[in-house]
Design a protein that fits this description.
The chain is α+β, with helices and mostly antiparallel strands and 1089 residues long. It is built from 16 helices and 65 strands.
């Protein structure tokens, strides 16, 4: 995703927030110098190290006394990592230290370079200098500990690991190092504790890894932004956080609140005999008539894009049948006829939209006046189903007063906390597939008095806290405990809170420092509190002329902070606009809907997105769940302060479908962020050496996916082998060796059992094909090679619209026959079935072993989209084959036989039991299957062909070596008709991916794991791969002969889609468990991620 950051934004930023703190010193820096330096910082953030080096080198050459830009150039150089760069970087950093021995950053970089070169003693001196100077650099302590571990001085290593933990408890790699050191010291109890913490931190957005990669070596190893030199007499004005309130008398009851719905406009709804929509812009309100003029008895409103069309809709909760009003265009609403959306017909007093099952649509939880909840599942087909019976039995007996929806246990599933009037609160842990279990609250919380509650991560430790107010007006914070349950802390309050129905809680960053404040209504109005441990400090207090009945932070200004809005019992709408002239704000409007994309995986409203924003060393952790305890649901952008910085370093988002995404260098103001519709899983991508570079070919083992969901609790059976024929004349030897790379550029695990390279020498006029495809139904592929002489092209080809598409299937040119528009709800599904009718000039000879030979590719669905389609009653239909007999009748030969098994490749299909006289075939499917070239061949087995005068030869190229390596992530492009392409030359070291938890192969030699088909697995994860080296064939080719290569691979793959079985772990391992395999695994598969 980093390659999507626009450099033009960086160029325009005079003061660019980079990957580390801004640097100022006595060296005079003008605006142009600062701008060019900060451009280089942005280029480093995109991992374009070569371009960044050029940028910094120009400055360093022009300004040889500018110390910081020379250090920035060195960092770009060592990360560029061309031959000789490390030595050049070390020599350059020595010159910087010679001129300034006290430069902490230079000493740290030299320490890294020395340790990487094996000079651990010299590196230790530099790391200790950094620690002594800065007192608390966790990365320096970590790498120092690594040096001691390499020297087998495990106690010293453990001591420094522990110091690193003290310096930064979120540096996750330290715990693994401490675990390994404790193992060597035979302290099993400590080792277990360290490993448990290492695993626990995996889901914490603040947790960081330490490794020799840019952005993972600590701030001292990152390039620095600079500001132009300024005078020191600038002053910072002080003012209250909010302006005097603006009051709008509505003159009738108002229960609706705000939705950010189009073009940064904020909409508020009021209800009376003449309901109004109040459209707020910077100049104030425009009032218009609401469409629901005759609708009465409305208690609350929830805003969300229910049908994922890009327009925010309004759900009216009423005494009687609830109503959904869909916005068809800006400001134009019509009542929906969605079946099941009306609820149970009772008096609904509250409700909230969220994606309960990660299927990309918004489900609905509603609460009625009788204290009962209903969970309505969005089927994404215009209907809702009441699935309340799937909740635990205890729910039905509760008298529920309120609820909180959050991911309380950081497992990526949205949980439900039910609060009751008689103190019998219940936590429903979401285990996906509409399965909820009662979670552990602990007796203190479960039986406590709770008048109102809100959930937030105010202390930004990566774990959601609960804030509650009891019947005595006491404010309590509740923190989740490792052993289960919640521990309470009573917060000391300097104010008196409101009571009963007038008590409301909300969360917002009001001061602009990146710190969330708790907003509470008081006996006199409302107040904003910062909370440190058990102390609440009032940072702003406001008076209200009447009790507040609804309370919400609004995003009316994108760069100046939140507006606090309140509806009072006197029917006044009161707005407190931010008066923050000191600090800047970043406003994030997130959506799972990308207008130009062909599909989506997260809901268009972005509800449920987790947000981690870093500015310098400060983290702000929040999300897009409901941020107020008032009834109903507002839909607002998220506003986060960045202090006086010119930009936030980055924001990391975890979408509701589990996809991770990062955006860099966020300037103050509004940022519309849509989920990048990138390929999340593709199976291992194959590159081969073509004599000049590693060239992309396709993917392999798409047939071997583990745990692919095809329905609730149903998973496809993997085929753990595939034979893949390389394109002609592509593979070239290098120093007598054929090199092939199997890479994982996505969130996947590859389990490679065996790889072989088969070499076929074919006489003139003969060609090779394989019996290969994704076999859904018979005839199932055998993988066997066969040969043929003539490729018979079609006479004509027509699609289902009777359009002539002959030219699109005559050549293997990556231009496929057109197919219908994609169904944007479900990746890989077309809106309607499509057909391709192919006729031949002569009837097919059914006795001569006919095969269809097809080149093409497919847009795979994922487990999540497969489940979503099933839920909506839609079906992915693989290709079926019909044949036409001389009487003009069509006969089904194969139903749902399959399709090309992934990215561009060749498949074949034997035409068995063919009727006489067939002269046309018809392919039909309802998937995004792209047919590139189609033809007919008459095949012979190699045994049959060997009886001819010219014998085809088959041999196997010996495997010389296999090594697991950290290749990084090859740049992906999506070309016309969703055809993927990868550029290995433009790989980047880090991407928005995570590892499934478990043991992987150590980087380095894994030949023993790969050379035999024995279930001993080389296991690699995201950004990694296996380099296969085979002995090049030395035998010369005869004149007119051709040489064809087939990669035969045996293994499995598994992605991290939330609906994939065992998605978050490496295990359970596939294949047969044997003593020999276990022995090899204990030798090689010892790297824990």
């Amino acid at each position: 995703m980093f390659n999507n950051i626009k450099l033009s934004l960086l160029i325009l930023a005079t003061f660019l927030g980079g990957c580390g703190p801004n640097v100022t010193n006595q060296f005079k820096i003008n605006e142009q110098m600062a701008q060019q330096n900060n451009l280089g910082v942005g280029q480093m953030g995109q991992f374009d190290y070569a371009l960044a080096y050029t940028t910094f080198d120009e400055l360093a050459t022009k300004y040889p006394d500018w110390e910081q830009v020379k250090i920035n150039r060195i960092i770009a150089l060592l990360n560029r990592n061309l031959e000789g760069d490390t030595e050049q970087a070390l020599a350059a950093i020595e010159q910087v230290i010679k001129a300034n021995p006290q430069n902490v950053q230079a000493r740290y970089i030299r320490g890294l370079l020395k340790q990487h070169a094996g000079d651990i003693a010299s590196a230790a001196i530099d790391f200790k200098f950094v620690i002594d100077t800065q007192q608390s650099d966790a990365y320096a302590a970590y790498f120092l500990a690594q040096g001691f571990a390499q020297q087998q001085q495990y106690q010293q290593a453990l001591d420094w690991y522990q110091k690193a933990i003290n310096y930064d408890p979120y540096l996750r790699s330290v715990y693994y190092g401490a675990f390994k050191a404790s193992q060597q010291l035979r302290d099993r109890a400590k080792a277990k504790a360290y490993l448990q913490t290492f695993q626990k931190l995996k889901t914490n957005p603040r947790a960081q890894l330490a490794e020799i990669k840019y952005t993972r070596m600590g701030l001292l190893a990152e390039v620095k932004t600079v500001d132009a030199t300024r005078s020191n007499n600038e002053t910072t004005p002080k003012s209250p956080l909010f302006k005097q309130p603006s009051t709008y008398h509505i003159a009738h009851k108002s229960v609706g609140f705000a939705a950010n719905y189009q073009n940064n406009q904020t909409l508020l709804a009021t209800f009376s005999s003449e309901p109004k929509l109040l459209n707020y812009k910077s100049s104030g309100f425009n009032e218009s008539a609401a469409p629901w003029v005759k609708i009465d008895k409305i208690n609350a409103i929830a805003w969300a894009d229910v049908n994922n069309d890009g327009y925010t809709d309004a759900y009216l909760m009423r005494q009687g049948a609830n109503q959904l009003w869909l916005q068809d265009s800006v400001g134009q609403f019509t009542q929906s006829l969605f079946e099941g959306i009306e609820g149970d017909g009772s008096n609904t007093i509250n409700g909230v939209f969220f994606d309960a099952d990660h299927d990309g649509d918004l489900d609905l939880l509603v609460l009625n006046e009788q204290g009962k909840v209903s969970l309505l599942n969005n089927n994404l087909n215009g209907t809702f189903s009441n699935i309340s019976e799937k909740l635990p039995e205890q729910v039905a007996s509760l008298n529920i007063s309120n609820f909180v929806v959050q991911d309380f246990d950081n497992d990526r599933d949205t949980d439900i906390l039910l609060l009751t009037a008689n103190n019998q609160h219940l936590l429903l842990d979401n285990y996906l597939l509409w399965h909820y279990q009662i979670g552990e609250l602990g007796s203190s919380f479960a039986n406590s008095s709770i008048e109102n509650a809100i959930a937030a991560d105010i202390n930004s430790d990566g774990y959601i806290e609960l804030y509650t107010v009891n019947e005595n007006g006491q404010l309590l914070s509740w923190h989740r405990q490792a052993q289960g349950g919640y521990q309470q802390t009573q917060i000391k309050l300097p104010i008196t809170l409101a009571t009963d129905a007038n008590l409301h809680l909300a969360v917002a960053d009001v001061a602009g420092k990146g710190e969330l404040a708790l907003l509470v209504t008081t006996s006199a109005g409302w107040a904003a509190l910062t909370i440190k441990e058990d102390i609440a400090t009032v940072v702003f207090e406001a008076k209200s002329s009447a009790p507040i009945v609804n309370f919400q932070p609004l995003a009316l200004s994108a760069s100046h902070g939140p507006t606090i809005a309140a509806l009072t019992s006197q029917n006044d709408l009161v707005l407190w606009h931010s008066n923050n002239s000191i600090n800047r704000f970043v406003t994030l409007s997130v959506s799972g809907l990308e207008q130009d994309a062909d599909g989506m995986r997260s809901n268009a409203s972005g509800i449920g997105t987790k947000i981690a924003l870093r500015t310098g060393s400060r983290w702000t952790l929040t999300n897009t769940f409901k941020q107020s305890s008032s009834a109903g649901q507002s839909l607002q952008p998220v506003i986060i302060g960045i202090g006086n910085k010119s930009a936030a370093d980055f924001v990391a988002l975890e979408w509701s479908d589990g996809v991770y995404q990062t955006e860099l260098n966020l300037q103050p103001g509004i940022h519309h962020i849509t989920e990048t519709q990138r390929q999340l899983a593709s199976c291992p991508v194959l590159f081969v050496w073509n004599g000049e570079k590693f060239e992309y070919v396709s993917d392999i083992l798409g047939v071997a996916g583990i745990g692919f969901a095809i329905g609730p609790g149903q998973y496809a059976e993997p085929r753990p082998w595939e034979n893949f024929m390389l394109p002609n004349n592509l593979l070239k030897s290098k120093d007598g060796v054929y090199e092939l790379l199997l890479t994982e550029p996505m969130e996947e695990v590859m389990y490679l059992d065996n790889a072989r390279l088969e070499v076929y020498d074919l006489p003139p006029g003969w060609h090779l094909a394989l019996d290969e495809r994704m076999g859904i139904n018979a005839p199932f592929p055998t993988g066997e090679a066969f040969v043929y002489q003539d490729f018979i092209s079609p006479l004509k080809a027509f699609n289902g619209e009777y359009q002539d598409v002959t030219n699109s299937i005559l050549l293997r040119d990556n231009i496929a026959a057109p197919i219908p528009e994609a169904d944007k709800r479900f990746l890989g599904l077309t809106k309607e079935a499509h057909q391709l009718t192919v006729t031949f000039s002569e009837p097919i000879n059914e006795t001569n072993n006919p095969h269809l030979l097809i080149d093409g590719w497919v847009e795979y669905p994922y487990s999540q989209t497969s489940f979503s389609a099933w839920q909506a009653g839609e079906v992915y239909k693989p290709a079926s084959l019909e044949v036409r007999t001389p009487d003009g009748q069509w006969h089904m030969l194969y139903t749902d036989f399959g399709y090309p098994a992934g990215m561009p490749r060749q498949m074949s299909l034997p035409l068995l039991n063919l009727p006489n006289g067939v002269d046309a075939i018809r392919l039909s499917a309802r998937m995004e299957i792209f047919w590139d070239r189609i033809g007919l061949v008459y095949g012979q087995s190699l045994e049959q062909q060997s009886s001819t005068a010219n014998l085809a030869l088959k041999r196997e190229a010996p495997l010389l070596a296999a090594s697991a390596e950290d290749f990084g992530f090859a740049k992906r492009s999506t070309l016309a008709q969703k055809r993927p392409h990868y550029d290995f030359e433009q790989s980047q070291p880090i991407w928005d991916t995570r590892y499934p938890t478990g043991y992987y192969s150590q980087l380095g030699d894994v030949t023993e794991l790969v050379k035999e088909h024995d279930s001993a697995l080389a296991i690699i994860g995201p950004g990694e791969g296996i380099r296969l080296q085979f002995a090049a064939t030395q035998a010369p080719l005869k004149a007119g002969w051709q040489r064809v290569y087939v990669l035969s691979s045996k293994g499995w793959v598994k992605d991290m889609d939330m609906y994939t079985e065992d998605t978050s772990t490496v295990g359970p391992l596939p294949g047969e468990e044997t003593k020999a395999r276990n022995k090899l695994h204990s030798k090689y598969n010892t790297r824990f991620e």
